[in-house]
Backbone:
């Protein structure tokens, strides 16, 4: 069963007012941009790591449209989301701004995780709220001076959603202390890592199996029957391929290393006592080859034994 996660990067890019304080961020970055970057990082990590995750972005990914809050909730409800996470960044009323190091702004800061007031959906919402907050603080350290970081409010997205819904106010866009932190890439990385950890802690996620690249030694990709071995280490595959004059392919069939007949010394290797009567230049060239050969053979045997041992160990451990 898939775990369905609805992600809501609050607002739209051009929603009035929702932006960073100009005195602290001359670019006046829009709140949606940061909400969206965090939501995208969470989505990417979850899909990369787990095989049973589905994601629905209930806002407009391009930021052009500010999808109404009831519409976002409707999308999540109809889709049957297991959890709804709304991303925001906070601000206080400008009347609360004071001078901090010569800048008129908010002197406080910190992350708050909100849940629906007076309604503990599924009986797990409050526990999840605490867990999400703890994971965020563990990774970002953005504790700030919030006296109660466990908010309860009648925000639409918390009330109108059928599933457990959490709304993150991830630092203040008008805080002298928070702004440089929450505009950093590092913060996005930490926030997304925290949320992924939260999901893994509360839902039955299944880790993706890592597909290891193996290197196949074959005459051609189609000739699977004539394969001379499959190797994890490319150098070992090349050594084997050189022995037979075969090519090396990865497990998708891509040619990784091609046998070059003119450079090969294989026939001479089999008959080390090569014609001493050939022209002097050739004879000179042949000498190192002949000397190298026993060492090369030893290496090949050693590698073959190593692979055999690995197979035996794998078989025993089955
Ligand atoms: Zn917001």
Residues:
């Amino acid at each position: 069963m898939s775990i369905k996660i609805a992600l809501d990067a609050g607002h739209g890019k051009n929603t009035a007012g929702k932006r960073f304080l100009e005195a602290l961020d001359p670019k006046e970055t829009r709140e949606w941009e940061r909400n969206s970057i965090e939501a995208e990082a969470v989505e990417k990590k979850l899909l990369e790591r787990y095989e049973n995750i589905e994601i629905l972005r209930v806002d407009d990914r391009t930021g052009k449209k500010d999808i109404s809050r009831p519409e976002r909730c409707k999308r999540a409800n109809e889709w049957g989301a297991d959890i709804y996470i709304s991303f925001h960044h906070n601000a206080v009323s400008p009347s609360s701004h004071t001078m901090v190091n010569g800048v008129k702004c908010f002197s406080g800061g910190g992350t708050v995780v909100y849940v629906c007031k007076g309604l503990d959906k599924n009986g797990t919402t409050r526990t999840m709220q605490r867990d999400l907050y703890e994971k965020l603080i563990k990774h970002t350290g953005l504790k700030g001076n919030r006296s109660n970081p466990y908010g309860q409010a009648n925000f639409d997205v918390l009330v109108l959603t059928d599933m457990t819904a959490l709304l993150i106010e991830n630092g203040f866009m008008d805080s002298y202390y928070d702004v440089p932190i929450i505009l950093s890439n590092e913060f996005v990385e930490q926030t997304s890592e925290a949320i992924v950890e939260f999901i893994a802690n509360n839902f039955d996620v299944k880790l993706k199996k890592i597909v290891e690249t193996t290197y196949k030694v074959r005459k051609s990709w189609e000739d699977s029957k004539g394969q001379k071995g499959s190797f994890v280490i490319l150098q070992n595959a090349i050594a084997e391929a050189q022995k037979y004059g075969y090519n090396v392919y990865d497990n998708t069939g891509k040619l990784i290393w091609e046998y070059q007949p003119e450079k090969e010394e294989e026939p001479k290797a089999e008959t080390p006592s090569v014609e001493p009567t050939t022209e002097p230049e050739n004879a000179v060239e042949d000498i190192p080859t002949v000397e190298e050969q026993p060492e090369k053979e030893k290496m090949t045997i050693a590698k073959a034994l190593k692979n055999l041992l690995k197979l035996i160990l794998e078989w025993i451990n089955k």
Notes: Residues 215-257 form one domain. Residues 92 and 106 are 7 Å apart (CA to CA).
